[in-house]
């Protein structure tokens, strides 16, 4: 690994705790809008969301206060209910001159500003009013309280109202947290909306590729043609490298054998092609392996004409959701393997955007969170990812138990050395260090 120009680390995502990022959610929403409304994302990124309705009006000037509205309503009601023919002009004149006409007393004297001599003092206001004898306070009315008692009661009422407001706010926040809980990946993947007819129909099929199933044989030509189109357009491969033989060797033939044991899912274990059919046309194929503990992504090829749908990210999200679905049937399936992570390669670096992801330390053979690995890989292309001093559990402590095939006979290395005095310990040690202790004791190293 430390000698490679681009060190690669095995990466896996914990599918049961998977959380989609904001950009991944946008890709899923754009895909749903395309299926429902045939809406393609625009180059500027604005799309239909950036449009403003030309019929919108500013009605802020038309909104009046409640008092103004009530006065206007009363005025309109009075005017509408008034009969113009019933209005007496003389009554209007008399009403206007009424205030200007000075008032006269019974003696004929005019009351005005200059008639202060005729004004007499009001003896009723000068005299002190004497309370009439009665039976005391009215028993039907509440008893009088002192100002201090009233202030105390008002304070208690305010405290009670404040407590009720606090409780209501806390309840509202708790309800809002439950309502605004992040959606799981299954809720984000929407192929159709209820009550609406989609413009496009998407169908995802899982077909066994090795050994070839009948469904795979029927769609073999479409898959091979799509593979050739993808390789030549995206990777610039020549046509002779995208023929049927190359496709079969690369993505069809598999060392995995089908397994349909009781603990396996309904489709069984083995190699499969996950096909994406849009309106009856094959637009993408994800090559995956189903294993007892994981779903392993091998390769993806798609139609370059549908590159605007971000089929690479979309298929990865679908495969993560598929892993979670298989876990409900087979609880041992928990992880989604995405192949190798190469930190120095942008085309492979995107795999670290699926949370939570882990990289395997090639020295301690332990899984480490990718967030802790990135600073180390930024400094060096190759680094020990495990920060502890944990020893390598697959390290070879003795070469005696390494199996060797010599003259059509399997034997341990210690026995082989008895027949061949020129045995190269350094070469065998390098081999055992590369394959690990477990494999070195089960595989055969050919010697002549």
- Tell me the number of strands: 11
Largest sheet: 8 strands, mixed
Mean pLDDT: 82
Order of helices and strands: EHHHHHHEHHHEEEHEHEEHEEHHE
Question: Spans of 5+ residues with little confidence (pLDDT < 50)?
Answer: 44-119
Sequence of strands across the biggest β-sheet: 2-3-4-5-6-1-7-8
In helices, the fraction of residues equals: 25-40%
Termini gap: 29 Å
Shape: elongated
So how many helices?
14
Q: What is the percentage of strand-forming residues?
A: 15-25%
Radius of gyration computed on alpha carbons: 44 Å
Kindly name the structural category: alpha+beta
Topology (SSEs and partners):
Layout: E1 9-14, H1 22-37, H2 66-80, H3 89-97, H4 123-126, H5 147-179, H6 185-188, E2 202-210, H7 214-218, H8 220-234, H9 244-251, E3 270-278, E4 281-291, E5 294-302, H10 311-329, E6 335-341, H11 346-349, E7 357-360, E8 367-369, H12 370-379, E9 403-406, E10 409-412, H13 413-419, H14 425-440, E11 445-447
Parallel strand pairs: 5-6, 9-11
Antiparallel strand pairs: 1-6, 1-7, 2-3, 3-4, 4-5, 7-8, 9-10
Keywords:
8-stranded mixed beta sheet; 448 residues; elongated; 11 strands; 3-stranded mixed beta sheet; 15% strand; alpha+beta
Describe the 3D structure.
Strands 2-3-4-5-6-1-7-8 form an 8-stranded mixed β-sheet. The protein has a 3-stranded mixed β-sheet with strand order 10-9-11. The protein has 14 helices and 11 strands. 37% of the residues lie in helices and 15% in strands. Residues 44-119 have low confidence and may be disordered. With 448 residues, the chain is an alpha+beta fold.
Task: Sum this structure up briefly.
The chain has 448 residues and is of the alpha+beta class. It has helices at residues 22-37, 66-80, 89-97, 123-126, 147-179, 185-188, 214-218, 220-234, 244-251, 311-329, 346-349, 370-379, 413-419, 425-440, and strands at residues 9-14, 202-210, 270-278, 281-291, 294-302, 335-341, 357-360, 367-369, 403-406, 409-412, 445-447.
